[in-house]
Amino acid sequence: MIAKDSEALLAAVHWNDQGLVPAIAQDARSGQVLMLAWMNADALRASLDEGRGVYWSRTRQQLWRKGESSGHVQKLVDLRLDCDGDTVLLRVLQEGPACHTGAATCFFRAAKDAAWAETTPPPGSFLDSLQETIHGRRAADPGQSYVARLLQGGQDRILKKVGEEATEFVIAAKNGEREAILNEAADLLFHTLVALEERNLHIDDVLDRLASREGVSGLAEKAARGKQT
Fold first, then answer.
1. Structural domains present in the chain
2. Which residue ranges are recorded for the region named Phosphoribosyl-AMP cyclohydrolase (predicted)?
């Protein structure tokens, strides 16, 4: 949970001679570095008050609310200060691409043969990559693709498989054999991703939900869910 006493937080920041501090935005789900910008005290205060990424534009000399015109907003999950107090890290939930070029991250050029070459940005996470692979199997030949066979077999077939894998994981965990636990956990996670795909949901939707619970007591969260039903 982000503290609301912004003035106390601002007082701990070591601002440069221009009253600015570099601000790194990082995807709270994948850990991918999205961009580097600058903040003054007003930008940091606004980020805390509004719960979103707000920066200072050195070119326009004004506050810049990320996504204000593009819709690619950054929901603030966590704010951190480095050991020297002169750099802040915003862990955010990014809507759409972070870069104005349309790339997922601003860091899409890599040093290669004494030049900066455009390259495919690193995947946000292995789970993201796996989910995209599963999505791509929707239209595949079920005779050639296990995922396509599951998806075209319908929801009941997929959920039956998830149930089987969950049972096998419980048995493996009970027996306590490391390799069996890891194998069954991997199988359960994989088939859960297939079930999400069948419902047109993404692993990021699940991670968003987990991120929204950060700093909230598990008991309190369960009690709140009980009141909603």
1. 7-92 (3.10.20.810), 124-216 (1.10.287.1080)
2. 1-126
